[in-house]
Amino acid sequence: MVKSFTEGFLWGGAVAANQCEGAYNLDGKGLSIQDVTPKGVIGPVTEEPTEDNMKLVGIDFYHRYKEDIKLLAEMGFKVFRTSIAWTRIFPNGDDKEPNEKGLQFYDNLFDECKKYGMEPLVTISHYETPLHLAKEYNGWTDRRLIGFFENYIRAIFTRYKGKVKYWLTFNEINSIIHIPLLGGVMTPKEELSAQDLYQAIHHELVASALATKIAHEIMPDAKVGCMVIAAPVYPLSPKPEDVIQALQTEHDTLLFTDVHVRGKYPSYAKRIFKEKNITIQMEPGDEEILSHTVDFISFSYYMSICETADKDKKAGKGNLMGGVPNPYLEASEWGWQIDPKGLRHVLNTLYDRYQKPLFIVENGLGAVDQLVEDENGNKTVIDDYRIKYLNDHLVQLAEAIEDGVEVMGYTTWGCIDLVSASTAELKKRYGFIYVDRNDDGRGTLERYKKKSFYWYKEVIESNGASL
Ligand code: BG6
Asked: Residues lining ligand 1, CB < 6 A?
């Protein structure tokens, strides 16, 4: 019996527009990079959207959001995380005026959340860079994206100021180091210079701080968070070389949180830039913008990684963060190593470093589910493996709260089945709600409650006491 969770703890779930909405070309929406990456965010990029791209239809959330929000409300959700598709609002990214039909869609969606007392938690950019900005400007390598992004955030902040209090700037902003395409950068990773990569990062960091600044001006009550992939980095052995390697890999993530929370580049950045021969082009005013720091830190947590100085050791499978497998941990079917205690670890280290509220905005198990009939003839999934994964992580979250860490809330990833980001599959399911759609495009799109649906409902109802 766990009692650590505070009154008002924000329990809920998360999705992203491009992975669930579908309707990729309706009501004035333009193309985003997701519409041309049918095999997942790792690429390759196609010339045009192709039929095998599961995201074009997603789970048709665009048309079914009312039914879906109602189901999430039935579980007792206090918060629902989704993203705004930039290309619904500015189809090309550099348009002068926003698209009214796109704005209207999110008005309706947020109203629907409010109807059930659910707070929307909105990601401004979840790997959804407009394709036009990727093709014409090479994404965030080009400083002009800051201006286009500013138009976009001003439009959405002004429109939703009475409806959305919680905002996240860029989803997993540190992922651009591993997959530059996620920042709309079309130059293949192998050909991209460190100078261009870190310049793109600088532009995103300035844009992110600008969003915090402008959000606070337009919506004084708003709470704005940064969002990173947080994977604790363990040294593979106690060898000092491995420990130093782990520290350096950790810096790849901390660079992003340090700038967001401290409002300036950390001291170790100087050495990274020097060794990679990088000179960040700063404009007058950038330092002032960066000084607008976030209200909280949010992160996704799926796994920890191990680091070693031994270059012959191979990286783990399916692991965006790199690192080598931990011999003490088991992995999901996609090779993601499962480490509930790592969540306690990362919560403690981030809180010790910053003393800022933390928000876990993604956590979950991607697994193949089997639709079966229960004793009453209703279709369901007996997903005890998912319940175990989530339960184990929540117990560690409760431990961290006992350790004194301030945690605002917890949103599981893919609370309703959706299209996977890394592999673009539907068979990699995370949800409490099963969606009848398969990787060959077949399926009725009907929704069915899994066993975990009832489990999570009870967790929320008891504010964690049922864990
Ligand atoms: C995170 C992303 O990296 O992980 C999500 O923010 C993504 O968009 C999630 O869906 C799970 O990854 P995947 O590849 O299993 O969908």
From this structure: 16, 19, 171-172, 300, 362, 366, 413, 420-423, 428
